[in-house]
Amino acid sequence: MYDKNIYIKRREQLKKKVKSGLLLVLGNVDSPMNYTDNIYPFRQDSSFLYYFGIEHPGFAAIIDIDENKEMIFGDDLSVDDIVWTGPQKTTAQLAKSVGINNTAPTSKLDTIIKAAISSDRRIHFLPQYRAENKITLSQLLGISPQIVNSYSSHSLITAVISQRSIKSKEEVDDIEKAVNVSYNMYTLAMRVAKPGMYEREVAGLVEGIVLAAGGRLSFPTILSIHGETLHNHYHTNKMKSDDIFVMDSGAEVSNSYASDITRTIPVSGKFTSMQKDIYQIVLNTQTSSIKAIKPGVSYKKIHLKAAKTITQGLKDLGLMKGNVNDAVANGAHAMFFPHGLGHMMGLDVHDMENLGETLVGYEKNAKRSSQFGLAYLRLARELKPGFVLTVEPGIYFIPQLIDKWQNEKINSRFINFKKVNEYRKFGGIRIEDNILVTRNSHKVLGKPIPKTIKEVEEHCNM
Ligand code: GLY
Ligand code: MN
Predict the structure, then answer these.
(1) Exposed/middle/buried for 353, CB within 10 Å: 0-12, 13-18, 19+?
(2) For ligand 1, atom 2: residue with the closest CA
(3) For residue 342, which atom of ligand 1 is closest to its CA?
(4) Which atom of ligand 1 lies closest to the CA of 343?
(5) For the residues 315-331, what does the mean pLDDT come to?
(6) Which of 164, 194, 220 is the last residue of a domain?
(7) By alpha-carbon position, which residue is closest to atom 5 of ligand 1?
(8) Shared domain check, 204 and 323
(9) Do 117 and 72 share a domain, yes or no?
(10) Ligand 2 center–CA 94 separation, angstroms
(11) Ligand 1 atom nearest to CA at 249
(12) Domains identified in the chain, total number
């Protein structure tokens, strides 16, 4: 938790932005895994954390802008509860630590919301992604859970996005702490991975680093010799000598701020020359994209430039052909690079996506492309100082996608399918770092994680 003045200031800014009404912010509750008392590890809602800092389950808050009143709702533990859980700060103590003096038991929330409804007051709330909170809102507001999100407040959503998008120094420090844990995860993976090991053995060891650092994963680890599957959470393959594996993982170790790093690692400690060729294209794309980051530049422009670097590289290897600009305009690169260059990061690894991916990543009124590949670009807007984002280009050989495009002659003027088929078993390569947009330029966050072919091979052989 930060100093209470940080939370007080954030709430003051929020009130100024939304101007009037009652803001209702729900924290998360514990979620059972298979029976009530066996719960998933608790993760607080990120907007609740941002304004109220309390990392415990079962809290809610109200900011009454018109009355200039703030209130935290939560139930104190009984002695019977304490027998199982141990002592915990009271609601009043927790609220005080974030600068709020008014508290009430959770049951009081219903009375206050019902009173606000009967006086026709505007109640602002954020869209919910957890069923439990949809039900809570449904009960409080009398709207069915299925449609409760359609009544969420656009002005609250945009106010929260505008605040949370700009990271303060303490937030950036927390992201750097997470990246530094990622450094330990990646250098360990490079050192331990050996032919004959199972992916899950490496995944287990790197997850242990996060737990030992007192944190948790910021998302389920992607670690696979089938790196062509973008979100591959399946870790049961045995790794062979000429395999490379994509590891895309992250940690949250301080105030729930995330890291999100990807490296592609040769199992034997040495890349083959075919792997080196593709790796170098991805690396050039990643480093040139990072170099282009500064305030005022649109991330869509950097994404499209990355697509061109990839296309040129693949053309040099004989995998693509034709005019590079035309190929990218037609989305031909997307057979190899089907996702966006990156996304916002912060309290959420894909920051604020629950509030609306397009609202977070696109300018007001900007039209999102429907072209395969470009449609997945989560961040397209003009960059501002204080944004933290990922840069994560990749090249993948997805047999099912290759077959579809070849059979349907999609972009056949730009793709040399005969050559591409020689790479059917290649897998994929992705490289990802976390970048802060600074006042005039950018900063790669955290301790540099081995990235060049030479650095990765050296670490693999340590
Ligand atoms: N780290 C996974 C992703 O960015 O989608
Ligand atoms: Mn990412």
Answers:
(1) middle
(2) 248
(3) 4
(4) 4
(5) 98
(6) 164
(7) 231
(8) yes
(9) yes
(10) 33
(11) 1
(12) 2
Same domain, 387 and 352: yes
Single out the residue of 274, 305, 251 nearest to residue 434, CA to CA.
251
Domain hosting residue 28, numbered range: 4-164
* 25 half-sphere exposure, CB direction, 13 A CA radius: 25
Asked whether residue 152 falls in the same domain as residue 180, the answer is no
The edge-to-edge listing of strands for the beta sheet with 60-64 is 102-104, 69-73, 60-64, 22-26, 123-125
Neighbours of 19 (CB within 10 A): 10
* Among candidate residues 100, 187, 220, the one with its CA nearest the CA of residue 447: 187
pLDDT of residue 233: 87
Residue 140's domain is classified under what CATH number? 3.40.350.10
- Å from CA of 98 to ligand 1 middle: 32
| Ligand 1 site, CB within 6 A | 219, 248, 260, 349
Between strands 123-125 and 22-26, the pairing is parallel
Q: What is the mean pLDDT of the chain?
A: 97
The pLDDT tens digits of the residues spanning 219-266 come to 999 999 999 999 988 899 999 999 999 999 999 999 999 999 999 999
Q: 260 alpha carbon to ligand 1 midpoint, in Å?
A: 7
Tell me the mean pLDDT in the region 360-381. Answer: 96
Shared-domain flag, residues 406 and 272? yes
